[in-house]
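Protocol step 4 of 6: structure prediction from sequence.
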Amino acid sequence: MAPVDPRRSLTLLASETAVLNRDISALTADQWQAPANCPGWQVADLVAHVVRNGWSFLAFAQRALEGDLTPPFGPSVAHIQEEIKASGAKGAADRQQRETGEFVSLAQGLSDADLQAKSGGHMAGPRPIAWACTQRLVEVAYHHWDLRHSLGQDGPLAGGVATHLLPFMLDPRGSNIMTKPSEGATASSFRLSSGTAGQAWRLTAGPRGRQVDTDAGQPADVEIEAEPGWLALAIYGRVPASNPHLRLTGAADAAARFQAAFGGA
């Protein structure tokens, strides 16, 4: 399902989570209660969310190996998130380090065949453990950026992580984050180019959703070029069309089309 190496995802996940946990452990009491860049959340809510997500993916993999397709996501696990928030920054970081280690160890111990064949429950339908390896990295990478941005830091997603994640997030063959409906009233086409990484994709977006095309070479209404770390933020609604690190060309209303298709804080 994913055009990326799940074992590489696990290696990146271990290192990215370790740095995230270091940043969580260093939070002061005032920072813990400060507003996060996610509307309506405090930093504590943001941290509790990403740590709970780690618990969910560990449970997802464990249940997959037992043949249990009960999704460990959604309202039924909200109490786990509240427990994590109540444990404070240090408790949350310690828990995430432990559960990430368990998840990575479990997945690394599976054969390539089992990574693809063993599926767990998700609200959108069963997903293989191979998918979970990279999807969990998506969650950690973006919410780590959210945490840093909430604390006043400015910068892109790490280039190596973004280069690894973009083909997964823009996979025309399988489930990806780009398939959710966009808010634009007019259908538009976009070609995304990741600068020095030499990657390119084409997608269409409109009221009925977004679709990644199999041929990135077809003409597009809007061309978006950026380094991988900025492009990854742009397609996930983390930066606006006006961000100076994005280069938009094409239609006269390119910025408005971008905003309608991808959002952008």
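Step 5 (inspection) to follow. Residues 6-154 form a domain with the Four Helix Bundle (Hemerythrin (Met), subunit A) fold (CATH 1.20.120.450).
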